Every structure is written in structure tokens, then in C-alpha cells.
């Protein structure tokens, strides 16, 4: 078992959630239950799955939750592209968020590989 609070991938993904909430705070009110909600939910899914994985019995199970977190990051990137296409955010805002998403993905990939070597 791991202590999720000590994992840099968890800390970094928590920071991403905060950034996403601030970014989507400027979305139209009409999107409150649409794209805004969807973006926020999948961003929250990332650190949540990392934390849930730490509570599992084996590293193999943990790797599965890291995989789910990776999927949520891909979903988040897609939704940010949609947000840009709808002019809810500009290209710079999207690129800043996508850059952070890509960094977290790299961190998860490396960490996941280290766990697999322990299996």
C-alpha cells in the first residue's frame, strides 16, 4: 500500500483540479450542468483514482487505477478542445492545461512502469 498524499502524481493532479475549476468558472451559466460539470468531474476523477489505487491490495490493482486516471486525462483534454471550439476558453488557456495534463500523464506512465516491475 502507498500513501497517496505523498505521491507527486496525486499532488500534481490535485493542483490540476484547482486550475480546471478556476478555468471552468468562466464558462457560460448554461453549461453549468453540461460541459462544465463533465470537465470538472473527469478532472476530479484523476486524483480520486490515484488515491483509490493506493488502497488496493496489490501493485497490479494500483496500476489498473492509474490506467483509469490516464483515461480521465485523455477525456479531459478532449473536453478542453471542445471548450476551445465553443469559445469558452482561448487557445492559450487550453494549451496551458493540456501541457499540465501531458506532464501528469508522463509521471503516471513512469510510476506505473515502476509498479509493474514489482509485480
From TrEMBL:
CDD domains: 23S_rRNA_IVP_like. It holds the Pfam family 23S_rRNA_IVP. Coiled coil: none annotated. It comes from the Bacteria. This is Four helix bundle protein. It comes from Reichenbachiella agarivorans.
